[in-house]
Automatic annotation (TrEMBL):
It is an enzyme of class 2 (transferase). The keyword Mitochondrion does not apply. This is Lipid-A-disaccharide synthase. One of its GO terms (molecular function) is lipid-A-disaccharide synthase activity. It comes from Dethiosulfovibrio peptidovorans DSM 11002. Its EC number is 2.4.1.182. It catalyses: a lipid X + a UDP-2-N,3-O-bis[(3R)-3-hydroxyacyl]-alpha-D-glucosamine = a lipid A disaccharide + UDP + H(+).
Amino acid sequence: MSIFLSCGEVSGDILLSSLAGALRKSGYTRPLWGMVGEQGAASGVEPLWKSSELHIMGLSEALAALPRLYRLADRIVREICLRKPEAVVVVDSPDFHIPMVRRLRKSGYSGPVVYLSPPTVWAWRKRRVIHLRELFDLNLPLFEFEHSHLVRNGVSSAWIGHPMVDTFPPPVPPSEPDSVALLPGSRDSEIRRLMPILVSLARRLEDLGLKPVFSLAPGLSRSSRDSVLEEVGKFGLYRGEARDLLRRCGMAAGASGTVAVEAMMSDRFMTVLYRAGSLEWFIYDNFIRLPFVSIPNVMVRRKVYPELLQDRCKSSEILSSLVSYRSNRSIRRRVHGDLERCRSMMGSTGAADFWAERISRL
């Protein structure tokens, strides 16, 4: 017997490694195996496939990769049916994992299937809630508002808190208040689109006497790592977790996603950036009816962090938002009040132990 684990994002790999550690702590000694990244492998999960195979951003890139992804899912389904694990746990990447689990069910797998960090059905593609209800025995969302939405829609869901509650120390003042963390993201296409904008911003920040520091996050593909190193040039570079850089710096600008939650937990102001390909942006602009894209803004239903999307994502506008925060005391007071409120909504400690316990019940 064993447990199969699969993720497709760097942030998902962190969640998966936390779960693997909690399973071991609870006394689970059987094999853990699947598709993982560096952290998942370091936590003891046997990496039959690398999660970097799913590092795709947007519809146009996904379409080009469809044949390869179909073959990958087929290999995974065959291996699961051969090994017959006592549970299957997937993390993030719904465009890959939901079709994979559907094929797994059709292939006869009857064991429990769990979705850790399920898709944002509260935001768009809301019919996916049907898949979560019918294909998965348990969903483990990260935020209470997600859990409430799933329960209201008849989906099996459990929540106690976000794992960052365990791993983040209380916020402290920045040790380098004049430094600005520049966070280009963890996906190849994300980095490709944001790096030129952030390099331009870095020059403008230096003109104002501020110190730009680029993040080189662990788990990046070699091509993304090389791209960052090539473009950073003379600017500061931090090799390590974004959360550690955020604690040093006075403010930040970077890709939408997990790092915005890390900035919130660090009590740092951040300008959230998003640039997509033309097809992805057309879909977002026409079919996604959301006032905000970053989780802190969604949590309190107001603009805590400025969001510069697509054509507005340019260095001049980013600089303007950072300068406004830095120079306006009333903006700073409001932002940090909202961030404190967000942190109060993150739930209790022990999320990974809770996940392991709920999975062991199935």
